[in-house]
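Dear Dr. V.,

Thank you for agreeing to look over these. As mentioned in my earlier message, I'm a first-year student in the group and I'm still getting used to reading structure tokens, so any feedback on how I've presented them would be very welcome. I ran two proteins. I've put each sequence directly above its structure. The first is here:
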Amino acid sequence: MALESTVQITESPFLSILVWIVLLSITLYFARKPFHRAVMSFSRIIGTECAYHLRRRLTQKKGWLIEHGRFLFHPGWTIPNAW
């Protein structure tokens, strides 16, 4: 019963539900922009880290292929420039 008395704002259950919906809608509307900023910041961090590690890995792989290319390729082959 304690939860019902806390949730119930007015005597009418319908009116209480309506008031809660309006309050939650207003709260979510005002929290929209900070939440979007937080998500965009997080995705920018993740994207930057992924790009950094991909660049680093491809650079290492290209260097390894250049150093050990004589064991991987036949005499007429070249290392692709896609890396």
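The second protein is here, in the same arrangement:
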Amino acid sequence: MSIEVNGNARGKDISYIRQFRVAGMSRSQKEALKKTVSRLARC
């Protein structure tokens, strides 16, 4: 799974590009990973 976040927060540019190995993970585990990354990107 690849997740890419680009934007600007509090006057700072954000560029987050990561790949995760998700083979063997359940759908709910993948969704939890997405939520965690999006939460971190907002900090």
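From my reading of the second output: Residues 9 and 22 are 28 Å apart (CA to CA). Residues 2-41 form one domain. Does that match how you would interpret it?

Kind regards,
E.
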